[in-house]
């Protein structure tokens, strides 16, 4: 592991950025709490240096979105908490035209374009599932090139709350630094950001709602505002409204599944969310899968759990998608986790990536992954999974 090598590459990248600062700057970030914190870190750091940037929040990095973003020349494009698994596609569309900086923690693929620089800390020996988050990567990048941005460490700690193991490795170091500098303080078992007068746990929870449930209603931009300036009455009201909306949708879908049951194969179990989440961002189906994976009365804890829903064509800030897609989410229930950890069964991301090959794309981690496929191929993707698992089982 080499943080010093990362810092050296970060400084080199920043120098390239200053040389190209006459072009437009785009910050493309994911729609979950980690992604919103990541976007807020880069946006604020650039603002302090006098740069103006446009924020673009996306749920998934569709090839047609990459193509649209990279049509220009001489621009600067940041991918925050998203991008590493699609480095090859980004390189293919970029063709050296734009300085592209990826700050992510998902499994990386190699860059084929020297102007596409992937600073994912996995490329420097760390593990994106436990040692750092996307927001950690963004924070360490801006801190390396401007030590005065240490006050943004609370956002790295907030985004990292998605990591089940808690603060360890790089995140443990950031926590110690944040406590020493007073950027966060500990009250009981809660971390507070005095700047916002808000507990990091509460900030994380609100961002998860704003980014996913409120994706098509301006939720991500409101999340950026919350990250940097704290709560306002209209944000609090909106979060409550969205939470109630998702709660009712979850309740209706859960009742439906208890009535009809899940579809089951040899190694998988799955459901289609129909229009239960209409008007919400597609990340909600993954969140529901995570909840469902612990419902022993309904699911088989020894089988992969898959849920999918239709993707609206509108991408806020970018226009319409050309095709109809579905979002597919997969979770590994607790009884299956040990088999995956031991390498006897494929990881969630490996299984989904193989299933969508030639039909879509996927990314994620060992126990949770998501992908996109053309709507017409949804069942084909799911039906392939049993055979893929069978081929990879080590008995």
Q: Which CATH architecture of the largest domain is right? A: Alpha-Beta Complex
Residue fraction in strands: 15-25%
CATH names the topology of the largest domain as inorganic pyrophosphatase (n-terminal core)
Order of helices and strands: HEHEHEHEEHHHEEEHHHEEHEEEEHHEEH
Terminal Cα separation, in Å? Answer: 33 Å
**Domain module tally:** 2
Mean pLDDT: 95
Q: What is the CATH C-level name of the largest domain? A: Alpha Beta
General shape: globular
Q: From the helix content, strand content and strand pairing, which structural class follows?
A: alpha/beta
The total of beta strands comes to 16
Instruction: List the uncertain runs.
Output: none
Short structural description:
With 395 residues, this protein is of the alpha/beta class.
Please provide a written account of the structure.
The chain starts with a helix and ends with a helix. Helices cover 44% and strands 18% of the residues. The protein is built from 14 helices and 16 strands. The chain folds into two domains: 3-197, inorganic pyrophosphatase (n-terminal core) (Alpha-Beta Complex), CATH 3.90.1640; 262-392, Diaminopimelate Epimerase, Chain A, domain 1, CATH 3.10.310. The protein is α/β, with parallel strands linked by helices and 395 residues long. Strand 3 (76-80), helix 4 and strand 4 (99-103) form a beta-alpha-beta unit.
């Amino acid at each position: 592991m080499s943080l010093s090598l990362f810092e050296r590459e970060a400084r080199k990248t920043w120098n390239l950025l200053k040389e190209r600062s006459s072009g437009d700057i785009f910050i493309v970030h994911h729609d979950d709490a980690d992604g919103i914190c990541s976007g807020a870190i880069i946006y604020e750091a650039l603002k302090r240096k006098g740069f103006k940037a446009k924020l673009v929040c996306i749920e998934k990095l569709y090839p047609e979105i990459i193509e649209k973003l990279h049509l220009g020349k001489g621009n600067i494009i940041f991918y925050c908490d998203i991008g590493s698994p699609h480095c090859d596609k980004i390189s293919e569309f970029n063709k050296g035209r734009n300085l592209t900086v990826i700050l992510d923690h998902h499994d990386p693929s190699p860059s084929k374009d020297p102007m596409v620089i992937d600073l994912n800390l996995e490329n420097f020996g760390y593990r994106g599932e436990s040692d750092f988050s996307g927001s950690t990567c963004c924070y360490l990048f801006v801190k390396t090139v401007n030590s005065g941005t240490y006050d943004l460490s609370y956002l790295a700690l907030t985004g990292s709350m998605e990591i089940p193991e808690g603060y360890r490795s790089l995140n443990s170091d950031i926590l110690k630094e944040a406590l020493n500098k007073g950027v966060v303080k500990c009250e009981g078992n809660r971390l507070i950001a005095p700047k916002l007068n808000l507990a990091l746990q509460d900030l994380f929870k609100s961002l998860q709602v704003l980014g996913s449930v409120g994706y098509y209603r301006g939720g991500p931009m409101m999340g950026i505002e919350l990250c940097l300036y704290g709560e306002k009455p209209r944000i609090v009201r909106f979060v409550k409204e969205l939470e109630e909306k998702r709660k009712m949708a979850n309740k209706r879908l859960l009742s439906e599944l208890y009535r009809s049951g899940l579809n089951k194969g040899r190694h998988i179990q799955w459901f289609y969310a129909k229009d239960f989440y209409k008007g919400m961002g597609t990340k909600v189906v993954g969140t529901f899968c995570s909840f469902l994976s612990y419902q022993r009365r309904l699911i088989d804890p020894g089988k992969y759990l898959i849920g999918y829903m239709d993707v609206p064509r509108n991408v806020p800030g970018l226009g319409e998608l050309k095709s109809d897609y579905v979002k597919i989410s997969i979770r590994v229930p607790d009884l299956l986790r040990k088999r995956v950890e031991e390498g006897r069964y494929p990881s969630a991301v490996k299984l989904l990536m193989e299933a969508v090959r030639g039909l879509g794309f996927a990314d994620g981690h060992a126990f949770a992954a998501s992908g996109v496929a053309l709507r017409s191929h949804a069942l084909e993707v799911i039906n392939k999974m049993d055979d893929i698992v069978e081929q990879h089982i080590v008995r």
